[in-house]
């Protein structure tokens, strides 16, 4: 049965956030809110958590997982970013964007696209997510909480708790989330390619 963490959306309770972080460090797979929609997340090196996300979402090995980072200093440890790409990403973050970039050696091999050696990264504009990332001190390995055969993610924590009680270890609820996942921009070739149009405005990347 999944733990349920009720978090204040504007002033996250430190003790509660610490409890979530402790669960993640202990190997938990969580459902948590972001500035786009709910996501599944676990610790970066959690192989079992990764396998469980694949199973829940029925993902193949070509799916781009996302490292949800607190800031640019953290993001820069895991992907290669040249000056032009840096400026483009900097102008769009924090926000509802995922950027696909060449990974550094810090990224576990099982997270990489098998041919491109790329990974998704993002910096969310969400108070609760940022509080959790600060407490955790490392990125969250994440994927949108979109179940197979469904067109939109679930928007309410209690609904996620009800439906996924036996497949996730914890649900973090800070109120309703949106239904549009992030906009995905592939910068792995140095040029912006819009892979998915979502919550983030694509005008600057057209």
TrEMBL record:
Residues 14-200 form the YrdC-like domain. InterPro entries: DHBP_synth_RibB-like_a/b_dom, Sua5-like_dom, SUA5_domain. Pfam families: Sua5_yciO_yrdC. This is L-threonylcarbamoyladenylate synthase. It comes from Streptomyces polychromogenes.
């Amino acid at each position: 049965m999944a733990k349920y963490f009720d978090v204040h959306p504007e002033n996250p309770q430190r003790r509660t956030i610490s409890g979530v972080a402790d669960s993640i460090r202990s190997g938990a797979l969580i459902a948590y809110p972001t500035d786009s929609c709910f996501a599944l997340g676990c610790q970066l090196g959690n192989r079992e958590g990764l396998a469980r996300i694949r199973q829940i979402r029925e993902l193949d090995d070509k799916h781009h997982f996302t490292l949800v980072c607190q800031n640019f200093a953290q993001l820069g440890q895991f992907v290669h970013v040249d000056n032009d790409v840096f400026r483009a990403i900097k102008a769009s973050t924090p926000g509802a964007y995922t950027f696909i970039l060449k990974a550094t050696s810090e990224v576990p091999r099982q997270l990489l696209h098998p041919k491109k050696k790329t990974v998704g990264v993002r910096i969310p504009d969400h108070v609760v997510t940022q509080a959790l990332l600060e407490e955790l001190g490392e990125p969250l390995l994440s994927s949108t909480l979109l179940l197979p055969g469904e067109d939109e993610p679930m928007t309410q924590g209690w609904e996620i708790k009800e439906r996924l009680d036996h497949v996730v270890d914890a649900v973090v609820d800070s109120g309703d989330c949106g239904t549009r996942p992030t906009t995905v921009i592939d910068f792995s070739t140095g040029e912006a390619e819009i892979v998915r149009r979502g919550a983030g405005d694509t005008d600057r990347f057209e």
